[in-house]
Amino acid sequence: MTTRVAVVGATGRLGSQVCQVIEGLPGFDVIARLDSTSDLQDMLGADAVVDVTHPGVSATVVNFALDQGLPILVGTSGWSADRVRGLAQKVDSMPGATVFVVPNFSVGATVQNLLAARAAEFFESIEIVETHHAGKVDSPSGTAVRAAETMADVRKDRGGVVAPHSEQSARGEQVQGIPVHSLRMQGVVASQDIVFGGVGETLTVSHHTSSPDAYRAGIALALEYLISNTGLAVGLEHALGMSTR
Questions:
Q1: What would the DSSP string read from start to end of 90-133?
Q2: The model's pTM
Q3: 152 and which of 58, 116, 176, 213 could share a cystine (Cβ 3.0–4.6 Å)?
Q4: What are the pLDDT digits (tens) for 50-69?
Q5: Tell me: domain 107-211, CATH 3.60.160.10, correct?
Q6: What is the number of H-type helices and E-type strands within the chain?
Q7: Using CA of residue 120, residue 153, residue 51, residue 97, what is the dihedral sign?
Q8: With contact defined as beta carbons under 8 Å apart, do 189 and 108 qualify?
Q9: Is the separation of the CB atoms in 99 and 126 below 8 Å?
Q10: Parallel, antiparallel, or unpaired: how do β-strands 201-209 and 231-234 relate?
Q11: Backbone angles phi, psi at 241, to 5 degrees
């Protein structure tokens, strides 16, 4: 049986790659490629949806898919913990509904988040420096937001995070109390350093993406997970069978 997939945001960087992965994945087929001018009705007839649009559009796409009873894989940035909580309420009210939110399809970036969550148990001083290509429209990245939220959750019963002079704009945007510094530059795909400070030492957990090909394995794993599960899940670690805690 072939799973028919509608890709919303198919003409973008990630959307084009998602289509390529699906076309090469046994048991899956792209039946609709939607862009910013498409009517969302064009996704009807699919068995599943992939949303790789923009933060301002994503919620509309997700709600439409849910209302049509379609499982949806969300690769769009902007799904903060607050937005996910609202989404969880809707998913819980719809038995059988499926949403899989993946802030980053890179296996390496996912493992970085898992390692950082463990390190956060031992360090109260934490900052993130993330760099993406100049064309990325949002900052901080969804990957950085997810990492900050995960580490802040670990720290909440351990005295929180210490980030001095947080009122100064040069200290970065505060995400759950963790400063995040975003660079948008030519010549870069994606890079993220999570820096921990302790007494007399620092620890840096780094991940660097040199090619968009790094996302291919994660896209395939996420699609397989989407059609095999129900409910709401956030993070590629679910498809990897791993946990952030």
A1: HHHTSTT-EEEE-S---HHHHHHHHHHHHHTTT-SEEEEEEEEE
A2: 0.89
A3: 176
A4: 999 999 999 999 999 999 99
A5: no
A6: 7, 11
A7: positive
A8: no
A9: no
A10: unpaired
A11: 75, 30
- Identify whether 238 is a catalytic site residue: no
Q: Which of 132, 181, 207, 238 does the annotation list as catalytic? A: 132
Q: What tokens were used for 81?
A: 């913990």
User: 56, 61, 86, 81: which is closest to 71 by C-alpha?
Assistant: 61
On whether the CB atoms of residues 122 and 198 are closer than 8 A, the answer is yes
Tell me if the domain spanning 3-105+213-240 has CATH number 3.40.50.720: yes
Name, in order, each residue with C-beta under 8 angstroms of 96's C-beta and a sequence gap of 6 or more: 69, 230
Catalytic residue list contains 132: yes
Query: Which residues 6+ apart lie within 8 Å of 205 measured at CB?
Result: 112, 115, 116, 119, 193, 194, 196
Catalytic residue among 54, 136, 156, 181: 136
Looking at this protein, which amino acid is placed at residue 204? T
**What pLDDT, in 10s, does the model give residues 140-177?**
999 999 999 999 999 999 999 999 999 999 999 999 99
Domain boundaries, the chain: 3-105+213-240, 107-211
Query: How many C-beta atoms lie closer than 10 Å to residue 195's C-beta?
Result: 18
